[in-house]
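Reopening closed ticket. The problem is back. First fold of the pair:
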Amino acid sequence: MGNVRRTMYVLAAIILGLFVLSVAGLNSAQAGNSEGNTAANISNNGLAVAQDGFIYYLDQVGDIYAGGNEKVHKMEAQAMSPLLLGDDEAWDLNISGEWLYYSNWSDRHRLYKMRTDGSEKTSIGDDPVSNLSLAGDWAIYVKWTNTTGGGDNNIYKVSLAPGKQLPIRLNNDATENLNVTGGWLFYVNASDGHKPYKIRPDGTGRTQITADPVIFMVAADGWLYYSNFADGGKLYKVAADGTGRTKLSDDKPSFINVYRGYIYYTNGSDRHALYRMKTDGTGRKLLCNMDAGPLPINIVGGFIYYNQLFIKPD
């Protein structure tokens, strides 16, 4: 039944003008970031990153109902099948040179690295990490907990230099949706009504950007794109300096990504179907509806990685 449903999804997407590839059928990929990952991808759980003609991504191994989980795979351009790099359940994939960095859910969410061939797996620190990003020689992350007090889920950074390194705390806010881009750390401050804030990588310049309470947010190209809880979760944007606040759509996004002038989002107003529109709010278009519920959206090498499929928009 699962194969039949997947075939129906692919046919539906093709009818909508999309080119859909299964993981095993991916035959082209552009180089992605040379370091880290995009802030928008990390906000979407960091499921994929690209570099030098390879895509590294998380894909389900085993039956989800029997304890299957997301493990790191590697796909080369022109390859016919992916390579499984390890047994860890991973999130928040980042890449720098010959190393992959990730939050290892198989080991208390601790920060790990391994080479891009899967060798030399190494634990970097003891903190449970989420929203992991790289910035130069630093890893920046939220120290993850199950609680939401002001002393929990704070932003930390740790040097990637060899040897034991002590993490440095950068704020005291309960932090969600951490986005590292443009020399700033943007985040949703759960200690202040889930309003969007920014802070510099050295911990200075802490500033509230807008008074809107935010459900989900990504930062891209000097703007924040978010679902505004004060307006029923509808899609808004605001500049990183707090100006230009604009309602873009009455759609209610669950996940958002931004790539080359387009916003991609799962639309809670339409059964969480995958949509896109231009960053000025025009050109709204349904891409596909897999009846899969709200799912994260990653974009690498010009492909949308969504619901374990690589999709090439027209």
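Second fold of the pair, where the issue appears:
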Amino acid sequence: MEYILEVENVNKKLDTFSLENIDFKLEPGFIMGLIGRNGSGKTTLINTILGLYQKTTGNVRICGHDLCRDESRAKGELGFVLDENPFLEDFSSLDNARIYSSYYKNFNMDMFTRYCSRFDVDPKRKLKKLSKGTIIKFQLAFALSHDAKLFVMDEPASGLDPVFRRELMEIMYDAILSGDKSILFSTHLTEEIDMVADYVTILHEGKQVITTSKEELFESYRVVKGSEEKIQLLQPSVIGKKVTPYYVEALVKNEESILNKGCQIEIPTIADFMFYFSTDKREEFTYV
């Protein structure tokens, strides 16, 4: 099978931070959400996949093209929407499109202007005079206009109003309906994962905690609540726990051993996974 994105044992060392052995693949026609707390490495990983950072070791391939050995063809398959604007702020959206469209053989200027109209982006206004949300919309219009196969988005809903945020989720879903495109996006808004993601990768302190389908994630774990003594009976199924003055809550593996222990059992949320998989020592004490 040819994957849209292959990230193989990627390491990236910065001055005070490192990505360590990141490894996953993304098939055509799917959306992967990248989640983790601030500073977990989401933006560093995305910048490495885009070639904005030179990886220390490992391999990145986009539609089979190696990002180092075949950079032009690999990047030609990429569309991106970044939290930090990579375009020229002293130029208008239209001028930016004219400048950067030359890097993409399939860029369609008519399509770009239609998307600008749809997203209420004034193509003649300089980017530095646009709001952050409107710059995100411009980037989205550009990314959708050159037949990219992989869309990479870093906090794409940042700065967007709730109405367009929902429309963005619909646009992301529509973009992959053809079956030959995929999306990797980072977010701290867990409802976005619930709405559109097929796969989830959780990062913590530069390390890949888990990569799995959203369906398998929900099937494999449960949140349980009970006394400290009852939660202790669930070891070694406990991934992490939170202690309050009234009860103990824990994320546990969904196994038969957790049944009939007198605990309340619930299906986790994406927020639960991000909390328990990205907490130091997987344990948090909370006093109310």
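Update: turned out to be a display glitch only; the data is intact. The chain is about 30% helix and 30% strand. Residues 162-175 form the longest helix (14 residues). Please close again.
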